[in-house]
Amino acid sequence: MRYNVSCIQDLTELVDENLRQFRRAVSPVIGVVLMVVIVVVLAGTVAGFVLSFDDRLEEPDLDVDENTPDSAGNPWGEDELLAPEDATAGAEGVRYRLLFEVKSEDSVSEDSEELSNIDVVVTDGGDMFTNVAAGDFERLEINGEEQDVSESEITWDSDSGGAELNIEMDGVVYDPTEGDEVTLIFSGVDNPDDPGNYDVDVELNGDDRKEGDLEIVDDVKSILARQRPTLSFTR
Q1: Which residue stretches of the chain are H helix?
Q2: What angle do CA 48, 52, 57 make, to 5 degrees?
Q3: Which residues have C-beta within 8 Å of that of residue 101, sequence separation ≥ 6?
Q4: Cα–chain-centroid distance for residue 231?
Q5: Residue 235: band (very low, low, confident or very high) from pLDDT cuts 50, 70, 90
Q6: Burial of 227 by CB count in 10 Å (0-12 exposed, 13-18 middle, 19+ buried)?
Q7: Quick one: DSSP state of residue 88?
């Protein structure tokens, strides 16, 4: 019996010794190493997140419509037949763009007739073309390419109370071809005083007729329109 009690006591002491070993904490050196490892892992995680977040903040590519107002000399917006740089009612000395495409039904393209005369009429436009002079002509473009008119004489004639503009392109040699895009840019136009839509009629060589409309807006609408150009975002 004594032998059994002694064995039990020895077994108990052995178990207590093992339990005390399991209860011991990690040594200070190992604790420091673990802390360093944790800090390095966290720093790497944060750095990776910051760098990837910076990539996501890169500016997207802007796909700007070629007719959007910009600083490259295209402030007219939509491809209207007659478009002002400033559509504000009552604005004076405004730059305008006349833009049209030569169609198959135009006699000037069928007969290979030179385009020598353009008449522009704005119904109820008042005297908007009265102050336009020959010196207000800026350029003539065919399919986006500027034409040399240095040796040509371009005259202007404002009739019908100033609402009709006659453009005589003496010496300008241009045989219209179907699909050609013709652009004239000139200044000196005084916008109508009243906002609204005005009918526009353009005749080529007194025959071929093209129709469109001119929108004149109040001052507030014009300012807001120019502060919010149309942009499409592509990734």
Answers
A1: 2-23, 28-56, 107-110, 219-227
A2: 145
A3: 179, 180, 181, 182
A4: 4
A5: very low
A6: exposed
A7: B
69 in helix, strand or coil? coil
Whether the CB-CB separation of 169 and 117 falls below 8 Å is answered with: yes
**Residues of the chain with pLDDT > 90: what percent?**
18
- Residues facing residue 155 across a β-bridge: 168
Q: Could you report the per-residue pLDDT of 71-129, keeping only the tens digit for each?
A: 345 566 667 899 999 999 999 999 999 998 888 777 776 666 788 888 899 988 888 98
The HSE-up count of residue 214 (CA atoms within 13 Å, CB side) is: 30
DSSP letter string, 142-173: ETTEEP--TT-EEEEEEEGGGTEEEEEEET--
How far apart, in Å, are the Cα atoms of 39 and each of 34, 62, 149, 150, 160?
A: 9, 41, 74, 75, 85
Q: Which of 92, 87, 90, 113 is nearest to 102 (CA)?
A: 113
- This prediction has a pTM of 0.60
CB 129 within 8 A of CB 165: yes
Distance CA 19, CA 39 (A): 32
Residue 230: pLDDT over 70:
no
| Rounded Cα–Cα distance for residues 177 and 172 (Å) | 15
Closest CA to 180 of 152, 156, 221, 208: 208
Nearest 5°: phi and psi at 212? -160, -165
